[in-house]
TrEMBL record:
Subcellular location: Membrane
GO MF annotation terms: transmembrane transporter activity
Membrane topology: Multi-pass membrane protein
Cellular component, GO, one term: plasma membrane
Organism of origin: Oceanispirochaeta crateris
UniProt name for this protein: Sodium:solute symporter family protein
High-level lineage: Bacteria, Pseudomonadati, Spirochaetota, Spirochaetia, Spirochaetales
PROSITE patterns: NA_SOLUT_SYMP_3
Length: 474
C-alpha cells in the first residue's frame, strides 16, 4: 500500500507539471517567446527559476552523498558558493540584459564576429548534454529506489518524461514550473529532516557517531575547494546558457538584478537540508539502523532516497520523491532548452537555413532538445562517476575560455576578435588539460583555465588592440 501511494503522488505531480507545460505553451507565438518568455519575466519568476535551475536533482543527491562521505557538513558550500555567484552576478546581469541578445553566442557575434560566435556556440552547447545527463541520472536513482525497477528501465522512463515536458512550453513553461518546483523541493526536503533526525536518535546522537572532521564547516571540503567552487560558479553562471537565458528573458534590468539576489537567498536557505540528511544517514549506518544493502550494491548516490524510504511515512516519501524529481526536471528542462536555443539560433539559422522562419526555428529547437535528451540518456546509462564530478567538469569546460571575453566585452571596446578567439580556445584547452593531465594546487580546472584565458586575452589586446572588433557594445 505504501509503495502504491508513493507512486500515485509522484504520477499526479508529473501530470500536473505537464499540464502547466501545456498551459504555458499557449503563450508561445514566436521563437523569442519560446527561448526568452517574450522578455517578460518578473523578479519572483526569475528568482524561482534561477534557484530551481541550480538546485537540481544532481545537486540534492550529490550534497547528501558528499555529506555522507568525505565532505560532511561542509558539503553545504556546494550550494552556498552558487548562491554567492547569483548575488555577485546581480550587479552584472542588468548590463548583460541591456545588449538585448538572444544567446551568449549572439552577443559574441555582435561584439567579435561570426567565427567567435560559432566557437562559442559549440563550447556552450556540448556541456549541456553532460548537465542534462546528471539530472537524468539523479531522477533515475530516485525512481529506481522508489519502485524497485532496474536503473536502466528508470533511465528510459525518466528520459521520455523529461524530454516530452521540456519541449512543450519553452522558457514560459520552464519558468512557471520552476517556481512551483523550487517551492516543492524546499518544502519536501525540509519535511524529511525531522523524521531523519528522530530515526537517528536526535542531533546529539548524530554528532556522537560522526568523525570530528565531518562535522567541520570547512575541513571536509577544504578552503581551496570553496574558493575554486566560488570562482567556478561565478565564471560558469556568467556564461551559462541556462542562467543567461533567464537574464535575457527578464522584464527589465531592475527585475533581473532583484531576481538574481532573491534566487541566491533561496539557495542559501536550501543548502543545509540535504547535508543534514546525509549526516543523519551516516549516523544511522554507524548504529546499524539503516539497511545498507542498496548502498553497498549501488553506491552512496542512493543515500537520500534510501533514507527517506526507511524513515518517513509513505505520503511524505511521495512528497519528497516528487520534490526530488521536480528538482531534476527543473534543471534538465533548462539545460535542454539552452542547447536547443543555441543550436537553432546560432548554428541552424546562421549556417544552414538563413531564411528560416519562426515556425521552422521552433521545430528545430524542439528536435535538438529531443536529441539532447537521447544523448544524455546514453551518458546516464554508462555513467559510473560522481554526480558532482560531472557537474563541476561541465561547468568548468564552458567557463574556462568564454568568461573573460564575454564579461569584459560588455564593459570595454578595446579587445578585438583575435583576442577573443585566442582566449576561447586557450581557456577551453587548459580546462581539458588540467582536468585530465595536470593539477593546479588542488583547485578546480576552471581556475587555471580562466587565468590562462585572461593572460592570452589581455596580452593580445595590448598588442593588437581592437582592429578586428566587429561592433562596439554601448
Amino acid at each position: 500500500m505504501g509503495s502504491m501511494l508513493i507512486s500515485i503522488i509522484v504520477v499526479v505531480y508529473l501530470l500536473i507539471m505537464m499540464g502547466v507545460g501545456v498551459f504555458a505553451s499557449k503563450r508561445v507565438k514566436t521563437s523569442t517567446d519560446f527561448a526568452l518568455a517574450g522578455r517578460k519575466l518578473g523578479p519572483f519568476l526569475l528568482a524561482g527559476t534561477l534557484a530551481a535551475t541550480n538546485i537540481g536533482g544532481g545537486t540534492s543527491l550529490g550534497i547528501a552523498e558528499k555529506a555522507f562521505g568525505q565532505w560532511g557538513l561542509s558539503s553545504v558550500w556546494y550550494v552556498i558558493t552558487a548562491a554567492i555567484a547569483f548575488i555577485v552576478l546581480a550587479f552584472i546581469a542588468p548590463k548583460l540584459r541591456s545588449t538585448m541578445s538572444v544567446t551568449i553566442s549572439d552577443f559574441f557575434e555582435k561584439r567579435y564576429g561570426p567565427a567567435n560566435a560559432l566557437v562559442t556556440a559549440l563550447v556552450m552547447s556540448l556541456p549541456m548534454i553532460g548537465l542534462t545527463a546528471v539530472q537524468i541520472i539523479a531522477s533515475s536513482v530516485i525512481l529506481s529506489v522508489m519502485t524497485g525497477w532496474s536503473y536502466v528501465i528508470s533511465v528510459l522512463i525518466v528520459t521520455v518524461v523529461v524530454t516530452i515536458y521540456s519541449v512543450m512550453g519553452g522558457l514560459w513553461g520552464v519558468a512557471i514550473t520552476d517556481a512551483i518546483q523550487s517551492t516543492l523541493i524546499l518544502v519536501g526536503t525540509a519535511l524529511a529532516v525531522p523524521y531523519a533526525m528522530h530515526a537517528a536518535g536526535g542531533w546529539s546522537t548524530i554528532v556522537s557517531h560522526i568523525p570530528e572532521q565531518q562535522m567541520s564547516f570547512t575541513d571536509g571540503i577544504g578552503i581551496k575547494t570553496i574558493i575554486s567552487l566560488t570562482l567556478m560558479y561565478i565564471a560558469s553562471f556568467a556564461v551559462g546558457p541556462e542562467v543567461i537565458q533567464r537574464y535575457y528573458g527578464g522584464r527589465d534590468e531592475k527585475a533581473v538584478r532583484n531576481g538574481s539576489i532573491l534566487g541566491g537567498l533561496i539557495c542559501i536557505a536550501y543548502a543545509i537540508l540535504p547535508a543534514v540528511l546525509g549526516l543523519a544517514a551516516f549516523a544511522m549506518v554507524q548504529q546499524g539502523i539503516i539497511d545498507t544493502a542498496l548502498i553497498t550494491s549501488q553506491g552512496t548516490r542512493y543515500i537520500l532516497p534510501v533514507l527517506a524510504v526507511q524513515t518517513m511515512p509513505p505520503i511524505l516519501v511521495g512528497v519528497l520523491f516528487a520534490a526530488l524529481i521536480s528538482a531534476t526536471m527543473s534543471s534538465a528542462d533548462s539545460d535542454m532548452l539552452a542547447a536547443g536555443t543555441i543550436i537553432s539560433n546560432d548554428i541552424y539559422k546562421k549556417y544552414i537555413d538563413k531564411k528560416a522562419d519562426d515556425n521552422r526555428l521552433l521545430l528545430v529547437n524542439r528536435i535538438v532538445m529531443i536529441i539532447c535528451g537521447l544523448l544524455s540518456m546514453g551518458i546516464a546509462l554508462t555513467n559510473t562517476k560522481s554526480i558532482i564530478g560531472i557537474l563541476m567538469f561541465s561547468f568548468s569546460l564552458r567557463a574556462g575560455g568564454a568568461f573573460i571575453p564575454y564579461i569584459v566585452g560588455h564593459y570595454s571596446n578595446k579587445a578585438g576578435a583575435i583576442a577573443s578567439m585566442a582566449s576561447l580556445v586557450s581557456g577551453s584547452v587548459a580546462v581539458l588539460l588540467f582536468q585530465t593531465k595536470i593539477s593546479f594546487f588542488g583547485m578546480d580546472p576552471v581556475v587555471p583555465g580562466v587565468l590562462i584565458s585572461a593572460v592570452v586575452f589581455f596580452g593580445i589586446t595590448a598588442i593588437a588592440g581592437n582592429k578586428k572588433t566587429v561592433n562596439e557594445i554601448k
